[in-house]
Specification:
The protein has helices at residues 2-19, 32-49, 52-69, 92-109, 112-129, 162-177, 180-192, 194-199, 205-215, 232-242, 257-262, 293-300, and strands at residues 30-31, 70-71, 76-77, 80-82, 84-85, 219-224, 248-252, 277-282, 285-286. The chain is of the alpha+beta class.
Length: 301
């Protein structure tokens, strides 16, 4: 007790001295890419643990990016926010990570809004950052006259490179929308960095994940039925727990007109009746629809 008392008194003195000093500056800016990483991470936690608070966190961050960092009139995402939105346009890293974040939100919720936003941002990424000559994505937008040269990220370090993020995002989006154009952009991006990942693979581990995903047959898991059905949550939980990591999760319900118009292959999955069905497909070759959890678990295994 004597020693404990001395320590507490000493800590109180140290705190008083510290409080008399000027406080260090607080870095309280909000970055698009960092929030996107948080969204994807929170979605992964939710998908593996069903901890609803992590999904709520991801949704709040997703709404913030859409409402505070995106200028609808200019069709442009901005990189930073502090008190108000900054003037720096987003880099390719921001767009690619936000596309992945919104795809993760779509997989976690089934809400088509996140899928629509992910395609909106991926199209901006292609229009403003794509290298038509050598392929891959530049870090900055076309037309920035303040730069001597436009560079491309080719290193997955503490933060993943924009090109690795973009390749995975394009493959995932292409699998959901059935759009081979996105798949083509992804494969060209992977090939553009072959020299780096083939000679020093440790420099681009996330690009190797994209390569692995591109080489494996695309698996689609199509949930057909409304999200408010009582059976929806158990089916979704089983899928999230047992699916392959590179699979694409697709939701088709009565409000999926946009998705059905974008992916004509899904027209045969249009909901009929009130029972939830799940189709496990490889390259759109599907098994019989699973209507109970035991059948679904067997197909996913």
């Amino acid at each position: 007790e004597l020693v404990s008392g001395i320590i507490h008194k000493s800590l109180a003195k140290l705190k008083a001295v510290r409080n008399a000093r000027p406080r260090p500056h607080l870095d309280d800016k909000v970055l698009a890419s960092w929030n996107a990483y948080l969204i994807s991470g929170a979605c992964r936690v939710y998908q593996s643990s069903e901890e609803v608070s992590t999904l709520e966190l991801a949704l709040r961050a997703g709404e913030f990016i859409a409402s505070q960092l995106f200028d609808e009139s200019a069709n442009r995402l901005y990189r930073a926010f502090r008190m108000e939105r900054g003037n720096t346009p987003a880099f390719s890293e921001d767009y690619a990570s936000v596309v992945l974040a919104y795809l993760d939100l779509y997989e976690s919720t089934g809400n088509q809004r996140w899928l629509i936003l992910s395609e909106k941002f991926v199209n901006i990424l292609i229009d403003r950052f794509w290298d038509e000559k050598s392929h891959g994505f530049f870090a900055t937008e076309i037309g920035d006259e303040s730069l001597i040269a436009r560079l491309k990220d080719d290193y997955d370090g503490a933060e993943p490179s924009a090109n690795s993020l973009a390749a995975i995002a394009l493959l995932k989006l292409g699998a959901v929308l059935g759009d081979e154009r996105y798949d083509d952009y992804a494969r060209k991006t992977i090939e553009a960095f072959r020299y780096q990942w083939s000679r020093t693979p440790r420099a681009m581990p996330l690009m190797l994940v994209a390569l692995m995903r591109a080489q494996r047959p695309a698996q689609q898991i199509v949930i057909v039925g409304d999200r408010d059905l009582e059976s929806f949550r158990p089916f979704q939980s089983t899928i999230l727990a047992r699916r392959k990591r590179h699979s694409a999760l697709i939701y088709v319900s009565k409000d999926s007109q946009w998705l059905l118009s974008r992916n004509k292959r899904l027209s045969e999955f249009e909901p009929r009746g009130s029972k939830l069905k799940v189709y496990v497909c490889n390259n759109y070759t599907c098994q019989l629809p699973a209507t109970d959890l035991e059948m679904l678990e067997r197909q996913l295994s």
